[in-house]
Specification:
Layout (H helix, E strand, L loop, with lengths): L1 E9 L4 H10 L5 E4 L1 H8 L19 E8 L5 H14 L4 E8 H11 L3 E3 L3 E4 L12 E4 L12 H13 L5 E5 L5 H8 L4 E6 L2 H13 L6 E5 L2 H4 L5 E7 L2 H14 E13 L3 H10 L2 E9 L2 E8 L1
Length: 306
């Protein structure tokens, strides 16, 4: 199978917006090329990858790349890229190419490296070596074609909030589990068990592989299906939802049935312009807003059920 490579030459302020667009169209991976970050990698001793999640917002001349099946129509994607260009008043030069599957796999590995999120969580691809600190919680993730690498602001928001609100022995629901990164992080942070679901069969396969690679099959169950139709029949102490604002507003009434008083809802993937609607829905469903995280035009939230 061949892939259509969409490559955008722009400035760092556009990274999260472009990555969010590409993920919303189910891209088979997003990579960011940045010479400043590349120099950081080369200056670190082997086995000593302890740097934070990369922040590209102040960098110039970066490239954001995404991959789509060769037969997928990308006209709407290109229109959304043009809207980013207008919104940020920054040029976004588009390059298109065709890439063979084996080349895509190697290209992805070149730009996805070990990094830290928050105080304890370390995200590590299987092909890299890493010598952990005493209190590190290492999550081994091969994202493949599933959303959830930890680099995008929406996933970082969830991981950061989870460090604060997962205290130990909780039952957790991961709504739209993607690569399984949040499910794995929840157990690493002390959750009793996690029930994850995604509508994408590829994501479910990738998540199961990542759960197995982290040795957490006894604690995490991943299934394919419609989370909105299913979550109301479950019970949880914490619900994680790194999806879109549109799906969040549909999910919240059902999620409220699963959470008891004091339960925590952690949501992300929210474009700032959609945040007022999500906030209103949270309050109408009986939540108090505990914490809000923002980065450029993305929002993450932790809310507590009354």
């Amino acid at each position: 199978m061949n892939w259509r490579e969409v490559k955008i030459l722009t400035e760092g302020i556009c990274v999260d917006a472009l990555a969010g667009i590409f993920h919303s169209y189910n891209s088979g991976g997003v990579a960011v090329e940045d010479m400043q970050v590349a120099r950081t990698y080369t200056n670190i001793a082997p086995g000593d990858r302890t740097y934070d999640s990369p922040n590209f917002s102040e960098h110039n001349y970066i490239i954001v790349k995404a991959y789509f099946p060769e037969n997928q129509n990308i006209d709407d994607i290109l229109k959304d890229v043009e809207r980013v260009e207008k919104t940020f008043s920054v040029p976004c030069k588009i390059f298109l190419d065709t890439v063979k599957n084996e080349d895509w796999e190697e290209n992805w590995k070149e730009y996805y490296h070990t990094f830290r999120v928050g105080e304890k969580l370390v995200i590590k691809p299987s092909w890299e070596k890493y010598l952990p600190r005493a209190d590190d919680l290492v999550i081994e993730i091969d994202p493949g074609m599933a959303f959830g690498t930890g680099i995008h602001a929406s996933t970082r928001f969830c991981l950061t909030l989870m460090e604060k609100y997962v205290r130990g022995f909780e039952q957790v629901i991961d709504a739209g589990c993607g690569s399984g990164i949040l499910s794995i992080a929840a157990v690493k942070l002390g959750a009793k068990n996690v029930w994850g679901m995604d509508v994408d069969e590829v994501a479910v396969r990738v998540a199961k592989e990542n759960v197995r690679n982290n040795g957490l099959e006894r604690f995490i169950e991943v299934r394919a299906g419609d989370i909105v139709k299913t979550v109301g029949g479950k019970r949880a102490d914490i619900i994680l939802a790194n999806i879109t604002a549109e799906v969040l507003t549909i999910l919240l009434p059902e999620a409220s049935k699963a959470l008891g008083p004091g339960g925590i809802f952690i949501g992300s993937g929210i474009v700032e312009g959609r945040w007022p609607g999500v906030e209103r829905q949270l309050r109408e469903c009986g939540y108090d807003i505990e914490e809000i995280l923002k980065d450029l035009d993305w929002v993450g939230v932790a809310a507590r059920k009354k």
